Structure formats: C-alpha cells, structure tokens
Amino acid sequence: MTASAFQHTHSSSYARLEAEQLTLKHGKTTIIERLNVTLPEGQVTAIVGPNGCGKSTLLNGLSRVHAPSSGVVLLNGKDIHSLPSKEVARRLALLPQDTLAPDGITIEELIRFGRHPHQSALKQWAMNDQDAIDYALKAADLIGLKDRLLDTLSGGQRQRAWIAMSIAQETPLLLLDEPTSALDLGHQIEVFELIRTLSKQGKTLAMVVHDLPSACRYSDHIIAMKSGEILTQGSPKDIMTKELVRELYGVDCDLIPDPMTGSPILINIQRVRG
Questions:
Q1: CA 83 to CA 96: how far, in whole Å?
Q2: How far apart are CA 17 and CA 77, in angstroms?
Q3: What region does 56 belong to: left with phi over 0, alpha with psi -120 to 50, or beta?
Q4: What's the main place this protein lives (predicted)?
C-alpha cells in the first residue's frame, strides 16, 4: 500500500468529541465547572489562556486521563468512560507535556508503540502495521532519521517523533498538550506545520498553546479560557480583539492582520499598569 493510499483509507474516520456540563477537580479544588465544549471536526483547535486557567486540565478531561466529578465527555455520542480502553485508543491519541521513552530507543521503535491499540492475542504484527509506521515516518519527515536514537535528536525532531507515534496510532482525533513547549522558533514552526498538515488530511486536533500569535496563525478555532471558564470561542479572525487579550493576559496591544494569512498579529504589546 502506498503512503497516499494509506492516508486516503484512514483519514476520514468519524470522530466527534464533546463535553457537556463538565466539572473537573484536583482534590477538593474545582478547576473547571459545568463547561460545555465541542471540538470542530477536521480542524485545529487551540486552547489558550493564562497559566493556571485549566487548559491542560480540560485536555486531560477530554482525553479520559482526568475523570470528571460531574458531567460527561462524549466520543461519537458515547460516554468516553464507558468505552473499552483499546476502543478509545483507536479513536483518540494524547500527547502529554511530559513524554518518557526507554533509553536507547530509535525513532522507528518509538513509533511502533503507536500500533499497540491495534494488537491483540489473535491479531499480532501485520503488513498494515508497517504501512502505518512508514506513513507516520513520511508524514513527520523522519524517514532518513528512523534508525537514530531518540535522545540524539534535536528538540523539534524529537517532538515530531512523538507526534509520529500518535499518527501511527491511526486515530482521527489527536490532542496535544503544549506541543512546542521549550522549543526554539524554528522547531516550533516545524511542529505547527506538521499539525496543519495532519488537519488537511482530515484529522481533528486540539492543542494547548501558550503563544497567542502562533495559536492565531496555526489554528482554525480558538477556545479562550480564564479561571476555568470559556470566555469565548471561534475563529481567530472573529474573536481576537484588544479587549480579549487584555482580559486574558493583562496586556494592552494593537492587532493587525497578517499580510499572508489574514490571522491577527499582536503589536505594541505592553503590560497594563495601575
């Protein structure tokens, strides 16, 4: 099977992820209360907001890592916590902030882990598993590096390898928690461009992003959060205003359209005083 044929076969799986009246707590502390959200299918959603506002908690709640105190997360209309783990793993992949891999592992060996949800006692390694790995390597532009040890890679290459593992998992939904954290500008662009490519192939993606200009440039939909609540959501061009930036981050700025993409660019940024 060619990479393009593999892409065509697997890019159109149905995946709808939504939360209804979702409440999430850490211990006795309520982080998110009665929140409703739906991820637009086939688009990139960026979750933005100040530190501690509940962005990562929301992503963990949507991915079944964090069990709700009340409310429900629905995957294709079914309570995600009622579904078998492997069924969820065939629909949804999560890339957390902190990723750990065994020492001495190569890129291709890491990506093989993404096929685990498709294995069983009756179904071991098959040709379509290798097709998925080959496709993931190509999608993440890692074919020439597949035999390299993970710990010898640059930050951007390493993050692309982790995303490639998620691609090999062959899920229509991909959730990423700060995928460009600690990366320099060039490596950030590498990762964001890969995310855009995956969206064009039909995947639904949601990512927690700290850098607001990058969120505006690389996402189709923004969820703006503060203190565990959604202040507003919609396309960057529709919702991003000076007033919203001030409410989120306590800064004043001007907004101009990017001459190439039309997405909002923040200029004349300064901390609100007084």
A1: 21
A2: 8
A3: alpha
A4: membrane
What own/partner pairs with CB < 8 Å and gap ≥ 24 does 153-158 have? 153/107, 154/187, 155/182, 155/183, 155/184, 155/187, 156/183, 156/184, 156/186, 156/187, 156/188, 156/190, 156/191, 157/187
Taking Cα atoms as reference points, which of 156, 152, 224, 148 lies closest to residue 195? Answer: 156
Closest CA to 65 of 204, 186, 177: 177
Q: How far apart are CA 151 and CA 267, in angstroms?
A: 38
pLDDT along the chain (274 residues), means of 10: 42 78 94 95 96 94 94 96 91 86 90 80 68 89 93 88 88 92 85 91 93 94 96 95 95 92 90 78
Distance CA 81, CA 86 (A): 12
pTM for the full predicted model: 0.86
| Residues in CB range of 113: below 8 A, 6 or more apart | 165
Structure tokens at 123: 């179904």
Residues written for the chain: 274
